[in-house]
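debug: dumping io for the single-chain case to check the tokenizer round-trip. Nothing else runs in this session.
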Amino acid sequence: MRWIRKLLLPFSGIYYLVTALRNFLFDKNWLSS
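debug: decoded output
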């Protein structure tokens, strides 16, 4: 069951990066409007 954790760790990291980038772009658009 360790491989599940190894598979989930990079996925959660990518999800965190995408969420942070989305929030950054959303704030940028909100400030420009």
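debug: round-trip ok. Helices lie at 2-32.
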